[in-house]
């Protein structure tokens, strides 16, 4: 019985630690976001609060009751929960260090208190382990950042292009890389890496010293985030794309979002800034409002066409879907022109661009027309993609969770557009299910609670010739 008490306490601490570190990894190890911006509070209740209450409560009644609860209910539930996640815990070096600290701390406290305490501590090993882990990671991050800074300083001829926006950052980054890469030795941040420590890690591990242009994406969740990245990178060229309400729950207002994005202008080495008109800035010696050069935009399922008016009007066509991509391409054209590329060179590059993965990417045209727009998560971009497929001659199907980190009104407006255009609406997850249920036609609405059933659902409800649009994607923890 004594051994069982010891083992159960040890496994309980590991279980709580496993759940917490998994959720923290999703939210960049920010406790505030895990506890105050979490969209699945029921998970906290099941895997955190109830286990702690039962540990103290059931033991007062009968110690065996907790053993039964832990081994028959909690532990199997946690295993099944993690198995079903589409974004499982990644055992990075940081996570491995945390578990080592947690194991050693728990064992140390248990040995000390083993015969002295009726109930072994729960909060103490978790608190101590997270405190030690976070202190170590902070020190490690400082050392790692200094290493990256020295690497950048050793590359005096490196041009850094920093891109930030409410949406479109990754598309701009990928388009610009394709346009510049043949003339310059370019490197871009991978995937959606856009945090300060993500950039630090990328520079230390992936940036070669012979690179001429480093294209870096910069994201933010609070005031000061862009400023910190800007002071670290010291970019010579800055792009501030369209400002909108993405992540407004963190910033509280569009004005706060705008101020944060414009922190990119604080670079001490700034030569030129290319800004969207939504920044409310004006042209000057260093600032170019790039979308003011944009004219005559047309978009269909073959791509997007537009004109740019410099000394004269120049026509461009890109095999990229989405009318909003004209603005993303416009800033790339302005930057490429600033860096010395001729208009004819840029036009050729634009005409041969490849779609950014998961952003209005045509996956197939037959037997079903499948478009993957899984990384498009804002109202403007999503609604524009719906207009793109409105005239498709066939059954139109959408798979979406709605908009994440947005207001109720925005999701209501989106649901109205979706209900007007699509013949079958598959809503994934519970986040916005109620909104869609209240607005969309019940005959064409299907709420999919488990995304593991998506392939089966599509095979049953769609046929050859249907257009299927995957609009936004949210991991199961959203």
UniProtKB/TrEMBL annotation:
InterPro entries: Mur-like_cat_sf (IPR036565), Mur_ligase_C (IPR004101), Mur_ligase_C_dom_sf (IPR036615), Mur_ligase_cen (IPR013221), MurCDEF_CellWall_CoF430Synth (IPR051046). Residues 358-470 form the Mur ligase C-terminal domain. Residues 163-336 form the Mur ligase central domain. Keywords: ATP-binding, Ligase, Membrane, Nucleotide-binding, Transmembrane, Transmembrane helix. GO terms for molecular function: acid-amino acid ligase activity; ATP binding. The chain crosses the membrane at residues 6-29, 41-58, 64-82, 94-112, 118-136. PANTHER family: UDP-N-ACETYLMURAMOYL-TRIPEPTIDE--D-ALANYL-D-ALANINE LIGASE (PTHR43024). This is Mur ligase central domain-containing protein. It comes from Campylobacter ureolyticus ACS-301-V-Sch3b.
């Amino acid at each position: 019985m004594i051994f069982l008490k010891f083992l159960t306490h040890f496994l309980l601490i590991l279980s709580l630690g496993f759940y917490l570190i998994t959720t923290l990894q999703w939210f960049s190890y920010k406790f505030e976001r895990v506890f105050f911006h979490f969209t699945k509070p029921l998970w906290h209740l099941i895997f955190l609060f109830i286990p702690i209450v039962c540990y103290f409560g059931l033991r007062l009644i009968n110690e065996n009751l907790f053993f039964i609860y832990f081994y028959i209910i909690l532990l199997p539930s946690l295993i099944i929960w993690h198995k079903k996640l589409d974004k499982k815990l990644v055992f990075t070096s940081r996570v491995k260090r945390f578990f080592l600290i947690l194991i050693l701390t728990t064992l140390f406290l248990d040995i000390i208190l083993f015969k002295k305490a009726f109930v072994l501590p729960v909060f103490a090993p978790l608190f101590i382990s997270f405190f030690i882990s976070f202190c170590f990671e902070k020190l490690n991050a400082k050392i790692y950042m200094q290493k990256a800074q020295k690497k950048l300083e050793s590359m005096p001829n490196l041009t850094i292009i920093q891109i930030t926006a409410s949406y479109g950052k990754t598309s701009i980054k990928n388009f610009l890389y394709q346009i510049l890469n043949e003339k310059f030795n370019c490197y871009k941040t991978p995937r959606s890496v856009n945090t300060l420590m993500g950039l630090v890690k990328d520079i230390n591990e992936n940036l070669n010293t012979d690179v001429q242009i480093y294209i870096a994406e910069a994201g933010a969740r609070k005031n000061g985030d862009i400023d910190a990245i800007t002071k670290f990178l010291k970019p010579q060229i800055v792009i501030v794309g369209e400002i909108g309400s993405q992540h407004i729950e963190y910033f509280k207002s569009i004005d706060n979002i705008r101020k944060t994005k414009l922190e990119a202008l604080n670079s001490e080495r700034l030569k030129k800034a290319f800004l969207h008109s939504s920044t409310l800035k004006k042209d000057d010696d260093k600032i170019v409002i790039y979308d003011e050069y944009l004219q005559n935009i047309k978009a269909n399922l073959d791509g997007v066409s537009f004109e740019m008016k410099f000394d004269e009007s120049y026509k461009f066509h890109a095999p990229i879907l989405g009318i909003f991509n004209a603005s993303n391409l416009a800033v790339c054209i302005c930057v490429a022109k600033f860096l010395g590329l001729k208009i004819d060179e840029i036009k050729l590059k634009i005409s041969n661009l490849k779609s950014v993965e998961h952003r209005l990417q045509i996956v197939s045209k037959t037997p079903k027309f499948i478009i993957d727009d899984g990384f498009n998560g804002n109202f403007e971009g999503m609604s524009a993609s719906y207009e793109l497929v409105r005239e498709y001659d066939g059954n139109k199907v959408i798979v979406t969770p709605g908009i994440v980190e947005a207001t109720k009104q925005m999701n209501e407006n989106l649901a109205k557009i979706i209900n007007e255009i699509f013949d079958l609406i598959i809503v994934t997850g519970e986040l916005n299910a109620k909104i869609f249920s209240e607005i969309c036609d019940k005959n064409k609405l299907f709420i999919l609670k488990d995304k593991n059933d998506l392939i089966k659902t599509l095979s049953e409800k769609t046929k050859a010739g249907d257009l299927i649009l995957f609009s936004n994607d949210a991991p199961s923890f959203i």
